Amino acid sequence: MQTPASHIIVRTPVIDSIGELCATRGLGKKTVLLFDENTRTLFGDTIIESMHRQGFRTVELVVPARETSKSVSTAWKLYGQMIEADVDRSWNLVCAGGGVVGDLGGYIAASYYRGIPVVQLPTTLLAMTDSSIGGKVAINHPLGKNLIGFFHMPELVLIDPAYLRTLPSREIYGGLSEVVKYGFIADRDFFDLLAAHWSEIVRLEEPWVSKAVSRSAFIKADVVEKDFRETSGLRATLNFGHTFAHGLEKMAEYRNLRHGEAVTIGMVCALFLSHRLGFLAETELHEGLELLAHFRFPRGLVEKRFLSLDRDELVESMLSDKKKIDKQLRFVLLDRIGHAFLHEQDIANEAVLQAIDDAKGWFEMKR
Ligand SMILES: NC(=O)c1ccc[n+]([C@@H]2O[C@H](COP(=O)([O-])OP(=O)(O)OC[C@H]3O[C@@H](n4cnc5c(N)ncnc54)[C@H](O)[C@@H]3O)[C@@H](O)[C@H]2O)c1
Ligand SMILES: O=C(O)C(=O)C[C@@H](O)[C@H](O)[C@H](O)COP(=O)(O)O
Ligand SMILES: [Zn+2]
């Protein structure tokens, strides 16, 4: 496998170079383009016209812009459209959208005809900094998040920060959640940069937003290169906050709770758990919470999707997480800001429940 970072290209406008970039990876010019309804409306015509000018033949697929599109029923429908359009192994698939389109399109590409190449063209901050990189592709099952999927590395990740100009504020915060995660798990200097330039980054001001995008993409690519199939415990650190987050998303039935929002709440819980178990110093706990206090949620969301939940039911829901072993949850914890590890031993249920209570108390206080 090549260095993951070598196939990540950050350029504006990247779409005008897709033909030449595909050629460098031995990809042809027959492409299935997957959009969601919003990215089709916003960027579809420009992308398709540019690709046609570069000699591509395209087939267009569009899915509803929501998490529930990551489903077996949507995948089944798309397979049918591809078969009817005579898509064969000489084709590739480009995912033009956020993490939903990327995960779903990657899943289709990994399974259709036993696998065709996939190119990621991320258009949300979350997709540019996380989901388009590293080849985890999946659909959800009603019993758990991302339970059905593959490791299918993209041939190319084409990042054009100009796509961010139309992104609603809620999606910017969603993306920033995973960006902040990299500061927590891998890079204290990056954490400090995010704390110092938070207001510029939220307003998507340059050079801060490009710095945040490229640093995030690099950290993720580096982790993936060292532990592609999540076997050594290193890649699992990208799951910081996610054991809680996946439980919350499942309880919300994947509706009205963005993945990034669930991860922000999950990271608050994980910070408290790291502290309660004696790994994270009190000063660092408070520094972490201070940065997370910048996040904004739609009115009532934290109340409905977290504060009002029964904590035992949440822990039960978290048991759908793939890191568990023999029904015992596994957590990614911090021993300092800038370093995470997968805690391999069982953690007493009481500590997890207390961390949830701590996080609830913190959100209550913040209201
Ligand atoms: N595979 C991975 O490694 C990985 C990593 C993180 C998250 N994920 C997955 O990613 C998904 C979340 O992705 P997301 O947060 O990008 O959500 P999303 O794909 O649902 O996109 C969010 C919203 O933004 C709209 N949108 C996209 N680009 C836009 C643009 N440029 N301007 C205006 N609107 C735009 C979309 O239509 C959608 O309504 C979750 O399913 C999560 O599990 C996967
Ligand atoms: O790429 C990874 O590895 C990650 O854990 C990135 C996460 O941000 C992402 O949400 C991922 O989809 C979670 O993967 P899962 O294996 O826990 O479903
Ligand atoms: Zn995530």
UniProtKB/TrEMBL annotation:
Its cofactor is Zn(2+); Co(2+); NAD(+). Pathway: Metabolic intermediate biosynthesis; chorismate biosynthesis; chorismate from D-erythrose 4-phosphate and phosphoenolpyruvate: step 2/7. One of its GO terms (cellular component) is cytoplasm. NAD(+) binds at G99, V100, V101, G102, D103, T123, T124, K136, K145. SUPFAM superfamilies: Dehydroquinate synthase-like (SSF56796). GO terms for molecular function: 3-dehydroquinate synthase activity; metal ion binding; nucleotide binding. It comes from the Bacteria. It catalyses: 7-phospho-2-dehydro-3-deoxy-D-arabino-heptonate = 3-dehydroquinate + phosphate. GO terms for biological process: amino acid biosynthetic process; aromatic amino acid family biosynthetic process; chorismate biosynthetic process. Zn(2+) binds at E178, H242, H259. Gene3D superfamilies: 3.40.50.1970, Dehydroquinate synthase-like - alpha domain (1.20.1090.10). The keyword ATP-binding does not apply. It is found in: Cytoplasm. Keywords: Amino-acid biosynthesis, Aromatic amino acid biosynthesis, Cobalt, Cytoplasm, Lyase, Metal-binding, NAD, Nucleotide-binding, Zinc. Catalyzes the conversion of 3-deoxy-D-arabino-heptulosonate 7-phosphate (DAHP) to dehydroquinate (DHQ). This is 3-dehydroquinate synthase. It comes from Chlorobaculum limnaeum. The gene is aroB.
